[in-house]
Amino acid sequence: MNLEARTVAAMILIYCKAHHAPGGGLCPDCADLMGYAGRRIEKCPFGAGKPVCNQCTVHCYKPDMRERIREVMRYAGPRMLAYHPVLAVRHLLRSRRKTSNIER
Ligand SMILES: [Zn+2]
Question: Are 93 and 51 in contact (CB under 8 A)?
């Protein structure tokens, strides 16, 4: 799994744990969302050089999935620093990268 997929998976877990499945694990909706996000990331035309999804010019998510992932990120984004500092910092660094520089 690449870094973006791991970051998204970690965020969905944080969000679901807080909202749907306090006992741990994932509710079926979030399991769905995670599977969907993973498939989108796999097919991303930017590959390993991709910017984080919210900076991406392609917007490959379906509108309803995009809304769900945005809500997850809004909630889990700030909490990533506490739970997964390494992933969070690397995510922040990449989010400063603009789509136009990724060909390097
Ligand atoms: Zn959930």
Answer: no
Alpha-carbon separation of residue 42 from 5, 20, 27, 74, 80 (angstroms) = 8, 26, 23, 23, 22
Identify the three-state secondary structure at position 4: helix
Cα 29 to ligand 1 centre (Å): 6
How do residues 46-95 score in pLDDT, each as one tens digit?
666 666 655 665 667 888 998 899 899 999 988 988 888 988 888 778 77
Q: How far is the CA of 7 from the centre of ligand 1 (A)?
A: 16
CA distances from 28 to 1, 12, 85 (A): 21, 12, 27
Ligand 1 midpoint to CA 17 (Å): 7
Q: Are 11 and 71 in contact (CB under 8 A)?
A: no
Task: Report residue 22 as tokens.
Answer: 């306090």
